[in-house]
Amino acid sequence: MDTTWTTRLRDSGLRVTRPRLAVLDVLGAHPHADADTIVTAARAAHPTLSPQSVYGVLQALVTAGLARRVEPAGAPALFELRVGDNHHHLVCRACGVVVDVDCAVGYTPCLTPSDASGFVVDEAEVVFWGFCADCRADTAESAPAQG
Amino acid sequence: MDTTWTTRLRDSGLRVTRPRLAVLDVLGAHPHADADTIVTAARAAHPTLSPQSVYGVLQALVTAGLARRVEPAGAPALFELRVGDNHHHLVCRACGVVVDVDCAVGYTPCLTPSDASGFVVDEAEVVFWGFCADCRADTAESAPAQG
DNA sequence: CCGTCTCTTTTGACCGGATCAAGAAAAGCG
DNA sequence: CGCTTTTCTTGATCCGGTCAAAAGAGACGG
Questions:
Q1: Which of A89-103, A120-134, B19-33, B101-115 is modeled with the greatest confidence?
Q2: CATH numeric code, B3-70
Q3: Which one of A13, A69, A135, B81 is least enclosed by Cβ atoms within 10 Å?
């Protein structure tokens, strides 16, 4: 995979460095990792890696279009490598786990709001909130009824 | 309006206090205000109001279902009074202005992801990102092409 | 293969938004 | 009016993330 990442970094005009390869490798293994998780996991490959370096790497990757930043409300930012496809996220209110989902109707039904109010919309970000199978079982007796 | 708020607070089991009425009044005038804006504006009616008090009031309102908290990525949390209807938001990447939009198809087309992966979904949060009419005019020559 | 330049990483301080905890004040009720 | 409970105030604290300067490593030319 390092070969692939090397190519992709070069194609994006970015230098190939150990911190970047380490972060990319972690993102490949953890599809929705937050910065702290990335730091911890990436240190397996690069023990002296600092949190700030990871922030720098992530920002470079996002700017280059190699990674995408997702910020669920009330949670630290997550990073993922799947870019370019219009997929969305399913977030568990209890454990915070994030799962990718394709848009409900196949193409992009939500990309056109009923009234754009003069806006030029370039992205529709959809977050489905709920409870995953595991947490639903755990909290079956005290499920909050919302909305 | 105070009369209405008084009734709604009582109906929700909350005591009627000046800070709460002040915050509700501000939310009525600013449909998508952040905490800082609320503090500043509410001080017109209650000069000694502290930021922490506003946070407390907002949390109480959200818990009681009188207000809703919205957290666009990269921006401080916003609060709005429109609750219960399944409306979404249009956010300008340049100036940050937020506009309400009804869901594209009238009812809730996005509430059912194609594959829920065992999740029980209770809310679909949709954020449309783009540029508002004013900012589109301002940045017409350097519009970023994304996605 | 080495020197040089530029981009990255590292280190450290710093910032804003938000939360937590304890005492003072006010709302609600009899 | 006085009591009880909720709420507001005050202050400290936490966390994720950013900013700036200096050390280090990648990439290109010789």
A1: B19-33
A2: 1.10.10.10
A3: A13
